[in-house]
Amino acid sequence: MVTVRDLPLEEYWLPGNASCPGCPASLGLRMLTKALGNRFILVVPACCSTIIQGPYPKTAANFPILNIAFAASAAAAAGVAGALEFQGKSDIPVVVWAGDGGTADIGIQALSGVAERGDNIIYICYDNEAYMNTGIQRSGATPYGAWTTTTWTGKKEFKKDVPMIMAAHNIPYVATACVSYPIDFVQKIQKASKMKGTKYIHLLAPCPPGWRFPSSKTIEVGRLAVQTGTWVLFEIEYGVFKLTGPSRALIDKSKRKPIREYLKLQDRFARMSDEDVEKLQKFIDSQWEHYKLLMETSKGMK
Amino acid sequence: MAVGKVLTGNYAVAEAVRLSRAQVISAYPITPQTTIIERLARFVETGQLKAKFVRVESEHSAMAACIGASAAGARVFTATSSHGLLYMSEMVWWAGMGRYPMVMAVVTRAIAPPWSIWSEHNDALAHRDCGWIIYFAEDNQEALDYVIQAYRVTEDERVLQPVMVTLDAFILSHTYAPVFMPEQSDVDSYLPPPGSRKLPYRLDVDNPVTHGNLMYPDRLMEFRYQIQRAMNNAKQVIVEAGRKYGRISGRYYESLIETYKCSDANTAIISIGSSAGDAKDAVDFLRNEGYKIGFIKLRVIRPFPVEELREICSGMKVVGVVDRNVSYGLGGIIHGEVKTSLKGVKTTVQSFIAGLGGRDIRVEDFIQVGKTICEMADKGLEEQPPIWVNLKREVIP
Predict the structure, then answer these.
(1) ipTM greater than 0.90, yes or no?
(2) Which domain CATH number covers B317?
C-alpha cells in the first residue's frame, strides 16, 4: 500500500507547462512521474499532451518523449521496447500517453496489435471523453447525451468500453483510474511497471473546458464520476477482476449517488431530458451487473 | 572470398539485411514483398540473424515501430510495396522529417484500382518529397549491394536520413539470378558496429530529450533547411559508400548515375530500375545500325543527380526519358525532373510512358524509343507531348 508519504518529492513534470487551468492530463502526467520517477520513455500521439509539453526548444518533461502520429503510438512504443530489449534495457518502462480519440478510435488497431503480441509496454489512455485538442468533437469514448461540437443535441450512442476490449485480449493487466484518486492511479502504474507484456490503464480525466465546468472543480467532478458509479475503478490482473478504492463499496447500488449529481455539474449534459438521464442511468446500472458477474467468475481464480 | 548464390531479388535483400546485422525488423506482408520478410523471419527464428522481429498488424504500425526503434538507437529494417507503402505514408513522412536512420526495401508495384500486383513506379515516386534517399535497383545484385550501402549512408552523421531501396515487382523480386554476397567479416568492416551511432537525439533516460514537440514558424524552416542540406551531403556520402563498397566486393558504384556508351552519343535513353538491361541491349542494336545513342541509368533519384545529368547530357541533342509512372495531367515524373535539371542546357527532353501495370518494356520498345529520339535529333524537332509506348489504342473506347 502506497501513501502520499512514499511518493518522491522530486518533480520531473515541470511547472510552467502549457496546459489549461485545472487540466487533468497535466495532473496525470505528474502522477506518472511520482510513480516511475524519470527513468521511463514516454510515447505521445497527437493529443492535448502534444501541446502541454510546451513548444520547441523548451519542454516541461524531464524525461525522454517520442512524439508520434495520431494512430501510431502503440506501435511506436513497441518499436522502442523492441530496441530496448535488444540492448538489454528492458527494465526501462516504455509508456504510451494517449487521449481517448487516439485510443478508442484512430489508435485502436495499433493498440490491439500490441496487445495481441504482448509487446512490453504500459499504455495509458487519459480519457477526457472527446477530441479536446481540436475543440471538443465527439469520440468513441464520449458518453451518451454529451454535447460536443459535433453532437450539438447530445451524443446518441453510448461510450465505447475500451478497458473491456483490452481485457478481451487477455493481457496481464487492465485497470481503470481517475485523476481524483492519485494513490489508486500511482499504485496501478507501479504494479503494471513490474509486469512483463502489455499493460493497459484507462484514466478518467475530467476536462474543464470540454465538459463545461469551472477549472477549480476537476477533482470534484472526477470524484462524483466515481461516487455515482458512472466511472468505476477496477483492475483485472491475469484475468482476475477486482474493484479498487472507493468503487469497492459501490457494488451495492444503494451506496451509489444518483448520476444526476455528476451530470448537473457539467454543462455538456445540460440539454439532457429526464428520459435521457434515465437511459444513461440504466446503461450504467447494467455495466455494474456485468462487473458483478466478473467478480463472481473471478472468485477462486488466481 | 565472396559467395556466389542464385537468389531472387527479395532473397538478395534479405541476405543483405542479415549481413548488415539489422537489430529491429518490423513489417507486414504484401505481395510481392512478402518473401523478404518470410526469409528474415526464418533468419531470426533460426538464430542466423540476432534481431527483434515485431510482427505488426499493418504497414502504418510497421513504420511506427521502425521509428520507435531507430529513435532508441537500433539498426532498423522494413519492407513493403504499393498499397502498403501508401498505407504507411504518414509514417514514411514522419521518419523523413524526424530524420530517423533506417532502411526500407520497396518492391515497386502498381496502385489499385484495378488490382494489379505488377511493377509500376508511382508507389515509390509518391514518396520522393519526404526526406528519403531513394535507390532504384537494376538487378538482384544491385538490390543486395544497395541495401548494404544504404546502412552506411543512413547512419552517416552528415546524412541521418532514411533510405529506400526499390526493386521492381517480379522482374526482380521473384526472378532468380546469380548474386555475389560479400563475406560477413567484410560487411562488418564496411559498416559501423550496429547500434553504435551516437546521435544527439537518441531516446535515453540518462540524457532526456523530447522528439518532435510543437515548433512555431520562427524555427521550423531552419529544420527543413537542415534536411535539404543533409540530402545535398548525401550525394557525396552515397558516392563514398559506393566506392568503399567496391573494396569489399569488387563492384564499385562511383556515381549516382550509370552511363552506357554515352561518350560520343548525341542522344540517350534515360530510365530507372529493372528495364535498364533491355535499354542497354537496345543501345547495342542501334549502335550496330549506326545510331550515336547511349543510355543513362539513374541509380538514385533522391537526392536527384542534377550535376551528373547536366554534365553527361550537355553535348546531346535529345534525351528520351522512359517513365514507368505517370503524374496524371503532366507526364512522366522522372521526365519532369530531368527537364528541370537540364534547364539552360540545349538538350531536348522527350517523355515516354511505358511498362505501366507491369507490361514488359521490351528491347524492341527501347529500339523504337531510340529511333524516335534520333529522328528528333536529326530533324531538329521540338519536344512532343508524352509518347505512350506500346499502347493498344484499339482497345480504348
Answers:
(1) yes
(2) 3.40.50.920
